[in-house]
Design brief:
2 copies of one chain form a homodimer.
Chain A (H helix, E strand, L loop, with lengths): L2 E3 L5 E3 L1 E2 L2 E2 L37 H7 L7 E4 L9 H12 L4 E5 L10 H5 L3 E4 L6 H7 L7 E3 L2 H9 L7 E6 L1 E2 L5 E2 L14 H6 L2 E6 L19 E4 L6 H4 L10 H16 L8 E4 L3 H17 L3 E5 L4 H8 L3 E6 L5 H9 L3 E3 L2 H4 L14 E3 L4 E3 L4 E2 L15 H4 L4 E5 L3 E2 L2 E2 L1 E2 L14 E4 L2 E4 L4 H7 L6 E2 L1 H12 L7 E10 L5 E8 L5
Parallel strand pairs in A: 5-6, 5-9, 6-7, 8-28, 9-12, 12-13, 14-15, 14-18, 15-16, 16-17, 18-21, 19-24, 21-25, 26-27
Antiparallel strand pairs in A: 1-2, 3-4, 10-11, 19-20, 22-23, 25-26, 28-29
Chain lengths: 519, 519
Amino acid sequence: MTYLTNAAGRSVINEINGEPSILFKGVGKFKPEGNKHGPSIASCSDYPSDGNKLVNDLREALERADLRDGMTISTHHHFRNGDFLANLVFDIAHEMGVKGLRWFPSASFPCHAHLIQYLEDGTIQRIEGSMNGPLGKFVSEGGMMGTGVLRSHGGRYQAIQDGEVKIDIAVIGAPAADTFGNANGLSGDSACGLLGFALADSQYAEKVIVATDNLVEFPCFPWQIQGNLVDYVVEVEKLGDPSLIISGTTQITRSPDRLLLAELTARFCETAGIIRDGFSFQSGAGGTSLAVGEYFKNIMREKGIKARFARGGSNKYLVSILEEGLVDYILDGQTFDLEGVRSMAENPGHVWTSPFTSYNYHGKGNFAGMVDVVILGATEVDLQFNANVVTHSDGYLLHGIGGWQNCLFSKTVILPIPLFRDRVPVVRDRVTTLCGPGELIDVIVTERGIAINPLRTDLIELTKSSYLPIKTIEELKSEADRICGIPDPPDLEERVVAAIKWVDGTVIDVVHQVSARHR
Amino acid sequence: MTYLTNAAGRSVINEINGEPSILFKGVGKFKPEGNKHGPSIASCSDYPSDGNKLVNDLREALERADLRDGMTISTHHHFRNGDFLANLVFDIAHEMGVKGLRWFPSASFPCHAHLIQYLEDGTIQRIEGSMNGPLGKFVSEGGMMGTGVLRSHGGRYQAIQDGEVKIDIAVIGAPAADTFGNANGLSGDSACGLLGFALADSQYAEKVIVATDNLVEFPCFPWQIQGNLVDYVVEVEKLGDPSLIISGTTQITRSPDRLLLAELTARFCETAGIIRDGFSFQSGAGGTSLAVGEYFKNIMREKGIKARFARGGSNKYLVSILEEGLVDYILDGQTFDLEGVRSMAENPGHVWTSPFTSYNYHGKGNFAGMVDVVILGATEVDLQFNANVVTHSDGYLLHGIGGWQNCLFSKTVILPIPLFRDRVPVVRDRVTTLCGPGELIDVIVTERGIAINPLRTDLIELTKSSYLPIKTIEELKSEADRICGIPDPPDLEERVVAAIKWVDGTVIDVVHQVSARHR
């Protein structure tokens, strides 16, 4: 393992978990070679002729799938912090005495802190996937044997498709499934809307297990997961805690500071001419993002226009925009509340998508680039507009990447962020961890001014005579530093605990272990 | 090239078009090895960032896709005998001076007789795909340079998936498409319902061109073909002749003989207990099959029961069964009339499927085996219940396989066929061409009696005390021979003009050139 400097000027490693890695070469610069991964050819002669793949329980399915030491086991995160299934899978692996597994979730959540015991006892060798909260902390403090690998939703699809990560066994939690393995997320106690994060797993894993707490009669339609790709179906009592899988209510922020960020963002879009008939947008399910959506809605109403499509996680606010006829389509990747689930089941214009359609950079295009404006968060940005979304300024890895990197390919990327959090400045000389190159980030909206990336001379021109508080990023940083003081750098050790992949599978940065002195 | 006898006792060749071929080993006996095909990995950096892949015309698209001598070009047959696109593709290839192409359609029709000139001048070296009518005759008489290969719909998916046929350029005619390449068959002048026959092509071809006469705004939804797999989009004036793409009206037979076959078939199913609440069936769009469906409908009404799903090509009769609530789902692979197209666009229970979901034998199961009863045709059957569906008894190759072989995996397979056609007996000592092994064919229904495969002791038992005219297959043959006389064998030459693949890619039989003496 050698430290080398990549095209973004970050010192990274050329070997991760014993495998060579490719250094980030710049946006759009790395050209993949070779062919997409093909899993083993199956034959219907090895499957029940009546299509019934039900086996007694998850342990039997894992045994039949030949769970062994060192395998790669994947799960999806549509059950978010309410997931029971991933914990159950590794409880069984532990019972079976299996060791050295690679857990490859589409993301992990605080509910998965249960798995720390298996990271400690060697059942799980490493996690490749976003780690939100306790698992991230555990990794940051050096507790995990292997090196974590964080990928965006699109990057995870890319890695699977390209054969960079070969999944031995995919365990797909399905809120509704038939005995053939057709599955969707639309009904049942664990309804989560869609199962797009498990699509690649179903297509490319060697063995696919569908676990459901709601077995329905064939055909389970729509088949978001196709039974033709499934080996075994099992019933489990409960896939998760419904109240944590899906929020009963998503709420717009009431914080005056965050409402100001949202309003400034929306006004910026209006002034720059982005909000026009037939436009498209993506904003997340965080309080500020939701508020941006509400401002967009009001502006559309005022102007008497409508959007063509909205991308992204759905919620009651986005659904109300659809049902009011202010947008033709929601192209949804993740459903955040009960209204989102209801709408996806009822409204033909509420379309479930996957990281393949929306984000995979090693496809023949994807939807991300077609979105007119995307509103994203960040933990830090720097003077080159580079941004961090996974670590805090103290070096702790506490957040996942999600679709964040993928969304940077939108026509305009806006980050509404506070200028400082808990007296720690958000605008830095250099981000602690680089997740997104500055050339793709167009606008930083803070409560004390808006900075436009100098590359976007068009946006600078369109807004220069407006009432908007346009400043340079340097001005914003000076202001933050003046108020908070110059922050200390994080206290980090040499050991790399995780690598951050770019959307094309190259290494854009690494995360170092947080020094024991600092904890 | 050597003649060898396969497990079905047919003398076949072990090399086709210079490539080694695997002999049929028996139903379920061949175990595939290796991995599914992976086409080259693409990168979004090579595609327009705004997702607009429109190029000026089809020639430009073919040139950009680097059309060259010896390539494999695929098309689909959802436009049936109204297709203009395949002819246009090869007109351009001819203009460009390209030679030695393999045309790989999902099927060809009489409208493609236009291409005989290109088979003669070497633009096209061979056709791999079903040949209905004039092209089949041309091949039978030895006109084609290479050897034809006929595959079932599922077998075509299998061959593409397994890398047995690598498609260089897929040209997909799309009744509706956006500039990103998302496409469906639901609207526009060329509406054909669905595009399932082109699914494999879109997934596995190196280059994919979507041609449309109805460009719609992004997103074209549902995306039966996903734009993420598409290289170029072109507009053409007309994809085909709407009156030949989709019938305005499908008609039930009025022939008393064929109505009798249909009624006997339905009564057999009723007597054998196949028509019960929640059952499933598939019957085609031919006049007799349609009539069987109508008898099923009446029986369901009488009994006050309903079917869970109907598989297969949809038409106004099947739609009326759905809309009357007598079946929950139509799992449709091919839409035959305007009512079918309307229903697919309107009814959530009218579901588009593909050869992947329905028929691919090299998947982890498929839908075919779940169907309780399927009604199919045949040109010949023999005393072992083997059946032929591609050649006439004079050896002429005039029909495609379609999904016929795949449907044989249904729980009960019934062939309602006349005992003789034009005084040529349909029940033979040995079929001219073997398409389906007798062990999968359960019942032969003729106007002079019903023969049950001795393997199906259950059906024999269930119907033995009924009023149905149950006979042995030998009795049926004697009766036909008594009326028509013992037929002469076909007059064939040694040269093999086409091979018939089984659902697993093995060679089940070959078709010989028809002797010049016989023409």
